[in-house]
Amino acid sequence: RGENPPPYDVEIQPSSKCNLACEHCFGRFYPRLPNLMGEKELGEIAKKIDDFQEGDFKVEVAKFCGTTGEPLVNPVIAKGIKLFKELGKKVIVFTNGLWLDNGIEDGRDYSDYILYADKLNLSLDAGSDETFFQIKKVNGFSRIVNSLENLIEKRNSNGSRLNVVISYVIGENNYDEIVRATKLVKNIGADEMVFRVDFTN
Q1: Global pTM value
Q2: How far apart are CA 195 and CA 178, in angstroms?
Q3: C-alpha distances out from residue 177 to 64, 133, 197, Å
Q4: Which candidate, 41, 55, 148, 150, has a CA 20 to 30 Å from the CA of 108?
């Protein structure tokens, strides 16, 4: 109708802290936002999102992501995934994957909750432990690969419809591992792999 439509999806940053130090992350150039989101704040946000309607438009998608931080640094995301699914929203989780195997209060780990989501977008960016450390300054490649294998095995055995997408930012330090990483991701059983180019490195 020639008008600006209201939002179809929302992005929620549960934490401004990160457990990696990726050389291509633009978040390092910005001040960190307050790291205050708790269960109460998330519940208030969810209610406002669910109540919002403008004409025929409602918010249909909730994305847990990070501009300067890693979503899984804040355990409130586990309850947040279930909360938004109970509200009938599509849920997408963006993560670096390092803490997929981290346990949380109820004895389960993050991967158990991510199975409730519709889509997981995991940024891998390497095909080996050495390159991963060079780019992200933390050891974690093998840990993430093991977590991905376990997650996909759980998904396939319990009927979850989680779509697993692996993203790969191409730079001068990892371009030669694209094929290696792609074969690895295919063998693990992820659904899709997407690439983008980092022109700063």
Answers
A1: 0.91
A2: 9
A3: 28, 14, 14
A4: 41
